[in-house]
Amino acid sequence: MTQEMIESAAAPRGAASAFLELRDLKVHFPTDDGLVKSVDGLSFQLEKGKTLGIVGESGSGKSVTSLAILGLHKGTRAHLSGEVWLDGTELIGASKEEVRKLRGSKMAMIFQDPLSALHPYFTIGSQIAEAYRIHNDVSRKAARARAVEMLERVGIPTPDKRVDDYPHQFSGGMRQRAMIAMSLSCNPELLIADEPTTALDVTVQAQILDLLRDLQKEFGSAIIMITHDLGVVAEFVDDLLVMYGGKCVEYGTVNEVFYEPQHPYTWGLLSSVTRLDRVREDRLKPIAGSPPSLINVPNGCAFHPRCPYEPQTGGKGSTVVPELVDAGKGHLVRCHLSAKERQDIFLKQVKPTL
Amino acid sequence: MTATAPDAAAALAGGSQPLLQVEGLQKYFPVNRGIIFQKQVGAVKAVDGLSFNVNKGETLGVVGETGCGKSTMGRLLTRLLEPSGGSIRFDGRDITHLSRAGMRPLRKDIQIIFQDPYSSLNPRHTIGTIVGAPFRLQKVQTDSGVKKAVQDLLALVGLNPEHYNRYPHEFSGGQRQRIGIARALALRPKMIVCDEPVSALDVSIQAQVINLLDDLQDEFDLTYVFIAHDLSVVRHISDRVAVMYLGKIVEIGDRISLYEHPMHPYTHALLSAVPVPDPVKESKRERILLTGDVPSPLNPPPACRFHTRCWKAQAICKQVEPPLVQIQPGHEVACHFPEERVLV
Ligand SMILES: Nc1ncnc2c1ncn2[C@@H]1O[C@H](COP(=O)(O)OP(=O)(O)O)[C@@H](O)[C@H]1O
Ligand SMILES: Nc1ncnc2c1ncn2[C@@H]1O[C@H](COP(=O)(O)OP(=O)(O)O)[C@@H](O)[C@H]1O
Ligand code: SF4
Ligand code: SF4
Ligand SMILES: [Mg+2]
Ligand SMILES: [Mg+2]
């Protein structure tokens, strides 16, 4: 994204050229306690064959964003605005029926908890076959064959037998695979993976990431990988979006964000994580405080109550919401510090601790 | 945290005995069939012959995949479960089969912290009541009253003492975990079993809680058994680390030895599977992909339990169980073909 594009993000424009493009997406929930601004002005683009990572603490708006793309807030009390373009079709303004047709065929999602997507009373195979038949006019027999084929693809042993198992007969890792098989049965061009490996052991996580990578190579799908694991992001994504309090605070290629991070929150994330690839330190460097409530988002920069550099912004940090600006070559950052100040702090204070 | 020598042998040579001595510890959960005449048809061998020591003031980390028996072990050590075999000595005393009443005086010495700060706190009780409960149960008279003692504890774990009358739902996940820690600390225990204490927390909050546990250990000379599936968190906090697979310890050693010179194929697979937060390094790393799932502990594979997934398995691995033997001082491995491999 260029500076020009960011500034004009709110203005109406024509159809997007990117495969997936979000323009100033907002998702707000009216509640008894007040308006929850779960997603507050999110814009990004994603091409086919590429993977975008979204990282952020719990409650930062990651899942609400993915549900918005899939049209799953339609018919709820959520207030949506902005645009979501998928391959030339705008989804926020589209009818519920229209989006339902795209869901499952053109776009699909995998969740952290496979049991939320699998019904306990039906066999794994019948559920995959059913998902396939919604979007494809084929016989039951053909759909069952497809289910077996998909189970084989995701690495379930003896798929022709396991196809008749119920979800409880599968282990956690196998259920995750079965859900992936179901999500991929129609070869979706956009796959949203919301914490797909968070509940799994590292050994199973490695298998699942491997599987997703293979499938992406084969079908050229675009993937949004939502996670809080910086290791998974480093391994898996091309571009990275860091979310805080419902907003993007940093966006860039994965190398830019890991090797030249610009935002104080990103610095905090990178320095607080324990890592196997570095000499062990005696003490960890946590980010102070806790994530904000989205009902009462702090004024100005949402990160300011936790930010050690807030005093350097001369009061702006706690009063004015910083704009998302280009720090060079489309690497975006939302912070009042000047480019020079960020560079100095990063080189002198942050980099030596990473 | 590193005041004590990591090596149990060295500690013994110094004359002090380990705080915790575990020998051949087993827990089999019976599996019954039949409605009227229940018949035992098998047993889940959740923990099957663990032997290790933990010295005073040190942290033993325990890692392994879901279902390998970590929590069962933690509950055996705190005697929330009755062992099926083996022995546990705490502070020189055999506590393996102590009755509830027999355990009561020891409850203040041995505490446990759970993963889920939500479900382990009673939602209808105030923080004051929750953290003060151990004082009341143990009928401890504190000079300045329970309230003052509780407020001191809240301050100690970084919570606002004024929040004495608040309820658990008014606190964030990280704060609730601090409440759990305050409750565990109330009676100044000697040992705390921490069962996945930071797994449910965001990374920035994880670091806060880990630092807190570190500080408390220094201040009160605490001994930790720290159970987690996150290998980098365990490396940070532990002096020694045990790797479990299907109810058994397959490798145990001091931190540096285990992470820098791991010998067991399963440890290799675990370490290689942890993605590191560095895109360039990550793209160059070798990854050992284990195939299939962990077998059922109802019917574990004979001899070496890892042989069904081990790429190095030979005929002997299916016939003879490899014993846990010392390969270097302070480093024990249960494998017929141990071999050092650098993975981190
Ligand atoms: N249906 C809803 N009604 C009100 N608030 C909601 C609803 N769904 C999500 N939220 C709130 O929106 C915020 C973002 O949630 P979510 O996107 O799930 O976060 P995460 O980044 O952990 O996935 C949270 O504060 C959450 O409580
Ligand atoms: N009360 C119980 N009854 C029967 N089986 C149990 C019980 N508790 C745990 N298990 C089984 O024992 C094994 C070890 O479980 P657990 O100690 O919770 O492992 P971990 O904490 O390493 O994930 C698992 O197979 C589990 O299903
Ligand atoms: S705008 Fe100010 S408070 Fe926000 S991240 Fe930048 S320096 Fe910190
Ligand atoms: S004993 Fe054999 S099967 Fe077991 S871990 Fe060693 S090499 Fe692998
Ligand atoms: Mg979420
Ligand atoms: Mg457990």
Bound molecules: adenosine-5'-diphosphate, iron/sulfur cluster, magnesium ion
Main sheet summary of chain B? 8 strands, mixed
Most extensive protein-chain contact, per-chain counts: A-B, 45 and 46 residues
The Cα radius of gyration of chain A reads 21 Å
Give a short account of the largest sheet of chain A: 8 strands, mixed
Written account of the structure:
Chain A has helices at residues 3-7, 62-69, 96-102, 124-135, 140-153, 159-162, 172-184, 202-219, 230-236, 254-259, 264-272, 339-350, and strands at residues 20-31, 34-46, 51-55, 79-86, 89-90, 107-110, 190-194, 222-226, 239-244, 247-253, 324-326, 332-334. Chain A has 354 residues and is of the alpha/beta class. Chain A has a domain at 1-106 and 189-198 and 230-354: Rossmann fold (3-Layer(aba) Sandwich). Chain B is of the alpha/beta class and 344 residues long. Helix content of chain B is 30%, strand content 22%. In chain B, strand 4 and strand 5 (93-94) form a beta hairpin. The longest helix of chain B has 18 residues, at 203-220. One adenosine-5'-diphosphate (ADP) binds at residues 29, 31, 36, 38, 56, 58-64, 294 of chain A.
Strands, helices and their partners?
The complex is a heterodimer of chains A (354) and B (344).
Chain A: H1 3-7, E1 20-31, E2 34-46, E3 51-55, H2 62-69, E4 79-86, E5 89-90, H3 96-102, E6 107-110, H4 124-135, H5 140-153, H6 159-162, H7 172-184, E7 190-194, H8 202-219, E8 222-226, H9 230-236, E9 239-244, E10 247-253, H10 254-259, H11 264-272, E11 324-326, E12 332-334, H12 339-350
Parallel strand pairs in A: 3-8, 3-9, 6-7, 7-8
Antiparallel strand pairs in A: 1-2, 1-4, 4-5, 9-10, 10-12, 11-12
Helix pairs in contact in A: 4-5, 4-7, 5-7
Chain B: H1 8-13, E1 20-33, E2 39-54, E3 59-63, H2 70-77, E4 85-90, E5 93-94, H3 100-107, E6 110-113, H4 127-137, H5 145-156, H6 173-185, E7 191-195, H7 203-220, E8 223-227, H8 231-237, E9 240-245, E10 248-254, H9 255-260, H10 265-273, H11 279-284, E11 325-328, E12 331-333
Parallel strand pairs in B: 3-8, 3-9, 6-7, 7-8
Antiparallel strand pairs in B: 1-2, 1-4, 4-5, 9-10, 10-12, 11-12
The complex binds adenosine-5'-diphosphate (2 copies), iron/sulfur cluster (SF4) (2 copies) and magnesium ion (2 copies).
